[in-house]
Amino acid sequence: MAKKPDTDGELIAENRKARHDYHIGETLEVGIILHGSEVKAVRDHKVSLTEGWVLARAHPPELLLMSVNIGEFGPAGALGHKPVRPRGLLAHKSEVRRLAKAMEVKGATIVPLKMYFKNGYAKVLIGVAKGKAEHDKRDAIAKRDAKRDMDRAMSRRR
Fold first, then answer.
1. By residue range, what is the domain housing residue 68?
2. pLDDT value at 69 more than 70
3. Mean pLDDT score of the chain
4. What is the pLDDT of residues 18-28, one digit of tens each?
5. Over the stretch 87-134, which tens digit does the pLDDT of each residue have?
6. Is residue 115 part of a domain?
7. What's CA 154's distance to the chain center, in Å?
8. Within a domain: residue 140?
9. Any idea which of 22-31, 48-57, 107-116, 134-143 has the lowest mean pLDDT?
10. CA–CA separation, 1 and 146 (whole Å)
11. Rounded CA gap, 141 and 91, in Å?
12. What mean pLDDT comes out for the span 30-47?
């Protein structure tokens, strides 16, 4: 049997839209509870984090990953998984309580930023986010464009 390619440390999915729509504060790496067919689908990069968010409860302490789409794994057939369902996240009780407290602030939410494999385990990087106003997004785009123009001008000078 052929050896499977090593996918450890490989970025599976990234939520680029989160950094555009939110100011990201504290981040935390957590484990994720997946069924067998979900692990196969994640290894095939069939994941969309864009619509996802995290529900943090203090009593009992738990984290749930909501609205994340993990596509179906074809060979699993009827024994496969539902693409969108709440999935448990693994973190220490104190971290869960701290995140639940951070969610109580008005306008704050927890969003998934990245999904990757680390030492054979699926991990999700989550961050406490606060929504950006429309003018903040325009300012960020203008700054990025100005920086790009300056870099171009400097490279032409050389």
1. 11-132
2. yes
3. 90
4. 998 999 999 99
5. 999 999 999 999 999 999 888 999 999 999 999 999 999 999 998 888
6. yes
7. 35
8. no
9. 134-143
10. 53
11. 35
12. 93
d(CA 128, CA 48): 19
111-126: buried (b, 16+ CB within 10 Å) or exposed (e) per residue?
A: bbbbbbbeeeebbbbb
Centre a 10 Å sphere on the Cβ of residue 100 and count the other Cβ atoms it contains.
18
Dihedral over Cα of 79, 80, 86, 88: its sign: positive
Contact 25, 127 (CB under 8 A): yes
53 part of a folded domain: yes
Domain-located, residue 34: yes
CA 24 centroid distance within chain:
12
Q: What is the dihedral of CA 54, 55, 56, 57, to 10 degrees?
A: -170
Q: 139 versus 3: which is more confidently predicted?
A: 139
Overall number of domains in the chain: 1
- CATH at residue 87: 2.40.280.10
Question: At a CB cut-off of 8 Å and minimum separation 6, what does 49 contact?
Answer: 13, 14, 15, 18, 68, 112, 113, 114, 115
DSSP 15-43: -HHHHHHEEEEEEEEEEE---HHHHHHHH
